């Protein structure tokens, strides 16, 4: 990488030819080529604020720092960063948390990059500075591991993982890991382990989970005997409080029974199960029962306990809205329609206050900005933030978070055979 | 000589001037450029490389050096998505290109000729619909003539229907040397098949028969009480069409010519990974990690045989009443595919009695140490010892090794192909055509996968 001559250069970083020129000078020697080099060195190329990627070791020219894989000029803070280029991050595997240090942290599961699989943590300052990724948990081997990451407390993540057996083992394994949160110094440990019959496949179905008071609740699919969902309640030390089982309806195939669990502001839990075909259940943990919600049009994105938010496209699939319906399907409220082509993959909304955040909120099909919407439990809807997007790669999914006047949004986009993780920060405005 | 000491700056200048003088007098010295001094452009002819070197596969190297060809540099490639198909006068390397953003994947190929030359890239089947939320399709390819291929694709759903897909194509290649004309393909038929759901997509397997082509796919089934698997076999004519009309035309039932329950009590969301044809039946090998086999007779009245094989065993040959397999070296560490291995590999023969029941496996001998991943390649030869191709024990082995295997006399290292790479090998493929051994492999890094190939004389 060329070094900028716009700023003083440490002697150790000067080029050999510059050193040669300086060495020749006391001897009164001059060479045309050296003179030409001197002329080059004397110019002041404008490298811009974010001119190039950092090298593999994270080194940038003087006057720049390596931030999220890009050399950024000192004094400049981009609000959008691309901190990871990986093989693939599943759309469920992006989890935001408030940071005890201020700002927010994002945990993602890189399940597919050869030799680099694992859970990674990134810290994002309110100004948009991204630190990381830091590997929290390694997934050795060549198989993806599904996970749901929750906050046990300020110092620990609780990560539930489901992994296929190692090639020489027999059973599928579900573990609850306690992992250090933002360098808290907590020693990683396994708090709970269970095994289940393995029927093959490519990667484990997604897990759902939530923290309710002093309990951690998670849900996962089992393929045995026609398929079912297990809902497990653990104390934060990993001891078991209870379990319940939901038989899968015939339209939900066991290896496609991805789980997603929503905890609403009133601590009610709602479970979504399925991949293309999905069903929603309200959970009563105390009674150990569940009730399937009558299917409604669209993709369920959040459960408020007595209502469900959906992504609903029109018949021509050219426009869509985020809508809120009661458990009986009655319409409560809706976002304005937005351009839609079937490729928008919010996957899930995330709780914020009494409502939920949804991203992306498309203003155009190219998703030139990644906007974030807020859907209230009364059906109110507002755009509350957004960040401009660089480049035109196809967006896969996005996940938003808000705290202390800022909206944080992470999204993934396809870059040829790889995937990029992007993070942006914008002011939080307009929450109803 | 002056006794005056030079300052450090002056000493540096002298050294620098010395270096400059050396470079100015370059033509008068004999610089040591090493074995592989630079990349080159073969179209530059004799000017491409310094004197004494030839431009071989894009690298200046000593004449005669076997430099692997680079067939493609991708960002990601599963090892299973590289195939090497014997063709008249050469081989065809086939792989899949994942266009996630378009949700359309391509199946592409290049021809390798006997001199190691690489053709322009051909698209065999392009823009195959592939939902980015699902796993990538699997494929198998079989040559049925000098320019004719069958290509089958097993894939997850693209639409809202849950069933997995099985699509069968025939492909016509342009004559060798006229690759610019492109390949043409025709989809012969398409089915939706039973599945347990996401990831329960079988690798399809094509097997040539004297009277046509067989295609096997492993379906997984779920009922209220059970989770099961069936091997579905389709009988095709040379044109890729099904020989007989199916008795069932719904994904609720068996749409193949035969559906045979298999792998009770084991994994069923698996694929068909290999096959062997014997006199009146076909052996289908199911799954690589927890392998089993199913021997299917041509006639319904014949005797079926099914049996489990040891974990990670690699079936390599079949007789009418026996299956021969390699047991690679034992994995150490945590037993992961990337962990070290130790001890010799071994060769085994599994006898099958007249009722189709496997007996006790018999050890045929020891083999050199080798990994199970990448999977070793076995090439049977008429009247000669079989060849076994493997990088050996190291994931980033510097060479691909070729052994001649004589069960009576053991294994003899008969060739080694330098990789000129220190990154792990994700997959190895090999085939023998007209006295030449064609090899292709994948060099895998976190953010790249490079397909390389070499052609050597048959050992």
Written description of the protein model:
The complex is a heterodimer of chains A (432) and B (459). Chain A is mainly beta and 432 residues long. Chain A is built from two helices and 32 strands. In chain A, the strands form eight sheets. In chain A, strands 21, 22, 23, 24 and 25 form a five-stranded antiparallel sheet that branches. Chain A has a four-stranded antiparallel sheet with strand order 4-32-31-30, with no helix packed on it. In chain A, strands 5-6-7-8 form a four-stranded antiparallel sheet, with no helix packed on it. In chain A, α1 (16-24) crosses α2 (32-42). With 459 residues, chain B is mostly beta strands. Helix content of chain B is 4%, strand content 48%. Chain B has a four-stranded antiparallel sheet with strand order 4-33-32-31, with no helix packed on it. The longest helix of chain B has 17 residues, at 8-24. The model of chain B is unreliable at 1-28 (pLDDT under 50). The chains are: A mainly beta (432), B mainly beta (459). The interface between A and B is large, with 56 and 59 residues.
State the assembly state of the protein chains: heterodimer
Major sheet characteristics of chain A: 5 strands, antiparallel
The helix content of chain A, as a percent range, equals: under 10%
Per DSSP, what share of the residues of chain B sits in E-state strands of 2 or more residues? over 45%
Taking pLDDT < 50 over at least 5 consecutive residues as the criterion, the unreliable ranges of chain A are 1-42
Distance between the termini of chain B: 64 Å
The strand order across the widest sheet of chain B is: 4-33-32-31
Silhouette of chain A: globular
Strand % of chain A is: over 45%
Largest sheet of chain B: 4 strands, antiparallel
């Amino acid at each position: 990488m060329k070094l900028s001559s716009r700023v003083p250069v440490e002697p150790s970083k000067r080029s050999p030819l510059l050193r040669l020129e300086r060495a020749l000078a006391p001897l009164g020697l001059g060479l045309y080529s050296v003179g030409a080099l001197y002329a080059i060195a004397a110019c002041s190329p404008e490298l811009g604020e974010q001119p190039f990627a950092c090298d593999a070791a994270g080194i940038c020219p003087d006057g720049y720092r390596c931030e999220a894989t890009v050399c950024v000029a000192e004094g400049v803070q981009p609000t959008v960063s691309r901190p990871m280029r990986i093989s693939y991050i599943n759309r469920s595997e992006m989890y935001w948390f408030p940071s005890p240090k201020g700002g927010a942290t994002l945990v993602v599961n890189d399940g597919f990059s050869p030799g680099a699989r694992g859970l990674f943590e990134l810290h994002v300052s309110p100004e948009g500075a991204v630190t990381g990724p830091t590997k929290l948990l390694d997934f050795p081997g060549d198989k993806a591991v599904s996970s749901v990451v929750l906050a046990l407390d300020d110092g620990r993540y609780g990560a539930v993982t489901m992994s296929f057996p190692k090639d020489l083992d027999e059973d599928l394994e579900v573990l609850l890991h306690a992992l250090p949160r933002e360098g808290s110094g907590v020693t990683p440990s396994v708090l709970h382990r269970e095994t289940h019959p393995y029927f093959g496949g490519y990667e484990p179905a997604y897990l759902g989970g939530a923290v309710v008071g002093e309990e951690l609740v998670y849900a996962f699919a089992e393929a045995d005997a026609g398929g079912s969902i297990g809902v497990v309640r653990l104390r934060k030390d990993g001891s078991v409080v209870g379990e319940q089982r939901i038989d899968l309806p015939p339209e939900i195939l066991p290896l496609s029974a991805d789980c997603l669990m929503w905890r609403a502001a009133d601590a009610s839990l709602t479970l979504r199960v399925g991949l293309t075909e999905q069903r929603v259940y309200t959970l009563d943990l105390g009674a150990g029962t569940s009730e399937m919600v009558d299917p409604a049009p669209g993709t369920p994105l959040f459960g408020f306990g007595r209502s469900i938010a959906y992504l609903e496209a029109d018949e021509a699939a050219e426009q869509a809205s985020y809508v809120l319906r009661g458990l009986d399907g009655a319409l409560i409220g809706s976002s304005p329609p937005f351009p839609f082509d079937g490729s928008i993959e919010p996957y899930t909304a995330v709780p914020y206050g009494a409502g939920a955040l949804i991203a992306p909120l498309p203003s155009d099909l190219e998703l030139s900005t990644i906007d974030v919407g807020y859907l209230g439990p009364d059906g109110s809807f507002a755009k509350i933030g957004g960040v401009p997007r660089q480049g035109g790669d196809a967006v896969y999914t996005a996940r938003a978070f808000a705290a202390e006047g800022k909206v944080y949004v992470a999204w993934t986009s396809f870059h040829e055979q790889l995937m990029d993780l992007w993070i942006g920060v914008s002011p939080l405005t307009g929450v109803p | 000589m002056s006794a005056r000491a030079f300052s450090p700056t002056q000493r540096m200048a002298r050294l620098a001037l010395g270096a400059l003088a050396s470079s100015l007098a370059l033509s008068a010295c004999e610089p040591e450029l090493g074995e592989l001094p630079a990349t080159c452009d073969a179209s530059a002819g004799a000017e491409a490389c310094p004197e004494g070197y030839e431009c071989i596969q894009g690298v200046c190297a000593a004449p005669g050096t076997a430099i692997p060809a680079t067939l493609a540099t991708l960002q990601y490639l599963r090892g299973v998505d590289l195939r090497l198909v014997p063709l008249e006068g050469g081989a065809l390397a086939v792989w899949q290109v994942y266009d996630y953003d378009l949700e359309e994947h391509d199946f592409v190929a290049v021809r390798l000729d006997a001199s190691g030359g690489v053709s322009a890239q051909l698209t065999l089947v392009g823009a195959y619909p592939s939902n980015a939320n699902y796993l990538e399709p699997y494929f198998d390819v079989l040559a049925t003539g000098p320019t004719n291929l069958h290509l089958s694709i097993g894939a997850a759903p693209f639409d809202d229907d849950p069933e997995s897909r099985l699509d069968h194509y025939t492909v016509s290649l342009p004559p060798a040397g006229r690759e610019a004309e492109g390949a043409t393909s025709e989809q012969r038929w398409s089915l939706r098949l039973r599945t347990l759901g996401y990831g329960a997509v079988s690798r399809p397997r094509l097997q040539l028969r004297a009277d046509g082509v067989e295609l096997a796919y492993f379906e997984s089934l779920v009922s209220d009480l059970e989770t099961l698997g069936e091997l579905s076999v389709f009988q095709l004519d040379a044109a890729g069409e099904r020989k007989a009309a199916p008795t069932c035309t719904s994904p609720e039932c068996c749409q193949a010519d035969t559906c045979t329950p298999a792998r009770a009590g084991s994994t069923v969301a698996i694929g068909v990974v290999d096959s062997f044809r014997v006199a009146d039946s076909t052996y289908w090998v199911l799954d690589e990690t927890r392998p089993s086999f199913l021997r299917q007779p041509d006639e319904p009245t014949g005797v079926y045989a099914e049996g489990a094989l040891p974990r990670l065993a690699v079936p390599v040959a079949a007789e009418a009443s026996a299956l021969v397999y390699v047991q690679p070296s034992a994995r150490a560490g945590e037993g992961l595919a990337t962990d070290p291995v130790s001890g010799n590999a071994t060769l085994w023969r599994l006898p099958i009695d007249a009722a189709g029941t496997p007996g006790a496996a018999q050890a045929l001998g020891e083999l050199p140490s080798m990994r199970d991943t990448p999977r070793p390649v076995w090439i049977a030869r008429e009247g000669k010892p079989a060849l076994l191709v493997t990088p050996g024990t190291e994931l980033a082995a510097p060479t691909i090794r070729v052994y001649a295997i004589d069960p009576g006399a053991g294994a003899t290292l008969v060739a080694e192909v330098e990789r000129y790479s220190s990154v792990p090998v994700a997959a190895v493929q090999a085939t023998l055509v007209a006295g030449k051994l064609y090899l292709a492999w994948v060099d895998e890094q976190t953010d790249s996968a490079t397909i390389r190939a070499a052609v050597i004389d048959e050992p």
